[in-house]
Amino acid sequence: MLAVAPRNEVVLLLRAKPHGTSVTVLTKNSVLGLPVHLSLDYRGWLVEQLQQGQSLHVVTLNAEMAMLARQEPPLAQLIQQADLVIPDGAGVVWALGLKGARVDRCPGIELVEGLLPRLTPDQGVYLLGAGPGVVAKVAQQWQTRFENLQVVGYRDGYFQTGEEPLVLAELQRTRPVLVLVGLGVPKQEYLIQRWRRALPQAVWIGVGGSFDVWAGTKERAPRLFRENSLEWLYRLYQEPQRWRRMLALPQFALQVLFTRGVSD
User: Fold this and answer.
1) How many other C-beta atoms are found inside a 10 Å radius of the C-beta of residue 202?
2) pLDDT digit string (tens) for 54-65?
């Protein structure tokens, strides 16, 4: 369900399609000065763009990334220039609700899982990131799970700066239309920004630690936690060393409340 606040920041993004067929509609709102696109069907919109050979950078925005962007202007600018920014975190959905915009949370891991079965055999996928052996396991599992999916290549995230040209050359050789990058925020976003022009036909999505979940080396929060906006608590239970990073959550809430009613 989607309803947007009647404010000037709302922008309709429509893609015309032939023969009167339906289009997927995106509307644009903002949280702490960062754009957030709202839609009833993010996957449908991405499928349309893939069919048209569009080059896109997809950002999965949560509270932690939003607060990091306030400290790093280059990251904020990158998010502002992204082609699709989805409300990945419960905090972002909450902040939008305070502005009168109602939208369901769309975790990046679920966005990708819903997108893969809709790809055609000629639409290759490349996996980049995580530790040694992790993406290889994911690739093997996906080739069995998704009948038509073509994983055209994969590479773990443990490559040096001097090896980047080799990795990029492999991407150009395999010509995927979907590149999933799991290097963590903001490293993955900066890499996508640098590399995306070398693959003008590709959709790039930063997936953070999702490869570890898909490979089974880490467990995603149970549904009860996810449905009650407590996924962060389960991650903290799994990785107590993340407690400093979790301080961004109350800081985000305070910033949103402080700027409420003020044009951001």
Assistant:
1) 25
2) 999 999 999 999
Residue 208, strand partner residues: none
Dihedral sign for Cα atoms in the order 39, 40, 42, 45: negative
Q: Is 22 helix (H, G, I), strand (E, B) or coil?
A: coil
**Alpha-carbon distance 218 to 210, whole Å?**
9
Q: In one letter, which amino acid is 128? A: L
- Specify the pTM: 0.86
Contact by Cβ (8 Å): 225, 233: yes
Residues 236, 194: Cα–Cα separation, whole Å: 32
- Of 225, 256, 246, nearest to 95 by C-alpha is 256
61-96 pLDDT, tens digit each: 999 999 999 999 999 999 999 999 999 999 999 999
Q: Which of 219, 229, 52, 188 is nearest to 123 (CA)?
A: 52
CB count in 10 Å sphere of residue 135: 26
Strand partners, 30: 35
Q: Identify the pLDDT of residue 10.
A: 41
Q: Is residue 71 exposed (0-12), middle (13-18) or buried (19+ Cβ within 10 Å)?
A: exposed
